[in-house]
Structures are given as structure tokens and as C-alpha cells.
Amino acid sequence: MLDRIEEIRTEAAGAIETAPDTAELEELRVHYLGRKAELTTILRGIAGLPAEERGQVGAGANKARQELESLLEERAGALDASELESRLATDRIDVTLPGAPARPVGHTHLITRTTRLIEDTMVGLGYRVMEGPEVEHDYYNFTALNHPPGHPARMLQDTFYMQSDPEVLLRTHTSPVQVRSMEAQPPPIFMIAPGKVYRRDSDATHSPMFHQVEGLAIGEGITLADLQGTLDELLRAIFGGNREARMRPHFFPFTEPSVEFDVSCFQCEGTGELPGGERCNLCKGIGWIEVGGAGMVDPNVLGFVEAGGYDSERVQGFAFGMGVERIAMLRHGVPDLRRFFDNDVRILEQFS
């Protein structure tokens, strides 16, 4: 019996050392150490042997089993390492390739695209793009724009103040950039100020945070007719080459005279009627769509920057402003301003 155990150990050891892969090694384990293996049968039958043989046969069989288990473990480790190296060499993938299916390429947000369109148009007219802080001082946001403390127009732009300093707030418009720009350079000045602004509004056409673009032109001999021509060019670039701009009297604290400006309706071509004779739903049959506010800069505003060369007896100019979301809503037929900020891909993917 001991001779047979040694034969099994020698045969199994040789087969294990030459096993070419882990699959064959597993077959050898089952063959020599499995439930039906000869060595396992010998161990199970020790109780039936004569008493004088049990000790020697049991010790020899257990020693052979332990040796084979050790050889199997060592060979498995070697084969695993070898097979891993082989897979790494042959199964390389390019992780920089797109997934399957490939995700669609992203694109610029509609608000950013609309802002850039306005910027490009105004730069083409000779204006500079200027920026300023979104956290602003009361002086620049209100006082220097002819909104003295207690002025009722401040209530129309109720906003968010800092608890730590009641003189610091989130700007309600980008007009403070106009004052800061005039402080930084003498006239003439032609600039626009795009950016985020903040007011306590939230509904289908208002948001607590939204975007504005405001323009300023100051120099000698600038008139309301120059404002009309500038708006004509800007609105044609935005809404189409056949558009007209009109101005209506209005009130703003920082301009005098002040106007609101409209663009001729691009859906009904300014007629107020659709081809079927129905009233135009976009302009409500008026033929004009309100776009923003404008006017000649109030001399009081120039008084705050008079030291920089802005003498209201020598120079004058105009300012205008519009909401970027409103322009985008009109151009693309978006019914609710809040859709721009929901990050709903069903909305965003429509404007790729």
C-alpha cells in the first residue's frame, strides 16, 4: 500500500509541475485529490486495514496529500501570474476611445450663445466688453446711478443684501460696470457689460438670478438718433435683417429722457396677423415685441464721474439694457424662463 501511495505522489507531482494552464491544473487536482481520487479512497479505507498497517498507511497518505496540495498551490500561483501577463499583453484596450454607444458631444448653453451673439454684434460696432463684480457696493448699484437712499425706484429692484454689511449686495443690474468703467477711463467710451444679476423674483418670466447685457456710449454730439441706429443694428443681428426698432417714452432714474424699445414682430412681420388671418400670439396683435429699456444718460449720473472728464456740458450719451433670457426666449420660443436653469437635457438638446 505504501508503494502505491508513493507511485501516486510521484505521478501527480510530475503532472502538476508540467501543467500548461490553470484549467488543466484544476483537472489534476480533481483527479488526484478529489472525492473519487485513489488517494482519497485509501484515506477513507484506513479503518479497514489491519491494526499494524493503519499508522504507516495513514501517515504516508496524509503526507502525500499535503505535499500535492502544496505543489498545486505553488503551480496555481505561477500559472495565474503568467496568464495575467499574457492577457495584459494581448487584451489591451484604448481607454481614450469613446464608449459604445458614443455619447453625443456637448455644446454651448443657449444663454451663453445668445450672450456671445450680442457681444459679437456690439464689438463689430466698436464697443468693448467690460466686466465687474457681482457682489457690489450700494454706491455703485444705486447711488451713483441716480438712486439716492430712500428713492422709490430702489424698491423695484429689491435684492439680496449681506448680513455682515448692509452696504454690500448682489447687484441688481450690470449698470454698476458702466460707472466703474467711466471711473477707469475718460470719454469717449463705448462699452457693453454682460453678466449675472440678482433680484427677488421667481416665476415663468422672472428668476432670482438672470443675465443682462447693458451698453453705454458717451462722447461729444451723441444723440437719441444714435441710440436708434445702434438698436436697429443690434436687433437685426439678433432677430433678422428686416427688423425695425421703435422707442416709447418711459422712466428710468439713470436716463433722461428714457425709453423702452421694441422690435418689430418676426413671426407676423409686424402686421399683427398670421397668414391665416388669426391674431399673432407672439406680439398679441400689436406688431411689436418689448425688448428692453434705454435712454440718454442723466446728467446727475455723469456728475458722479465728472472728475474723470465726464462734464455733462461737454459730453453726453446713451445707455441701454436687455435681459439675455428674454432674448433667448423670443428667438427660440421657450415658454418658461426657468427651463434654462433646470438642466433638463430634453430642453438643452433641442438647441445643439
What would your notes on this structure say?
The chain has about 350 residues and is α+β, with helices and mostly antiparallel strands. The protein has two domains: about 1-90; about 110-350, Bira Bifunctional Protein, Domain 2 (BirA Bifunctional Protein, domain 2). The protein is built from eleven helices and ten strands. The strands form two sheets. Strands 1-5-6-10-9-8-7 form a seven-stranded mixed β-sheet, with helices on both faces. Strands 2-4-3 form a three-stranded antiparallel β-sheet. Helix 3 packs antiparallel against helix 4 (about 50-90). The longest helix has about 40 residues, at about 50-90. The chain is elongated. The mean pLDDT is about 85.
The tally of strands reads: 10
CATH architecture of the largest domain: 2-Layer Sandwich
First and last CA, distance:
83 Å
CATH topology of the largest domain: BirA Bifunctional Protein, domain 2
Structural class by sheet pairing and helices? alpha+beta
List the total number of helices: 11
Strand order of the largest sheet: 1-5-6-10-9-8-7
Mean pLDDT: 87
Please, what is the CATH homologous superfamily of the largest domain? Answer: Bira Bifunctional Protein, Domain 2
Tell me the major beta sheet. Answer: 7 strands, mixed
User: Which CATH class of the largest domain is shown?
Assistant: Alpha Beta
Order of helices and strands: HHHHHEEHEEHEEHEEEHEHH
- Radius of gyration, CA atoms, in whole angstroms: 41 Å
Number of domains: 2
Global geometry: elongated
Helix content: 25-40%
Low-confidence stretches: none
Query: Beta-strand level of the residues, as a percent range?
Result: 15-25%
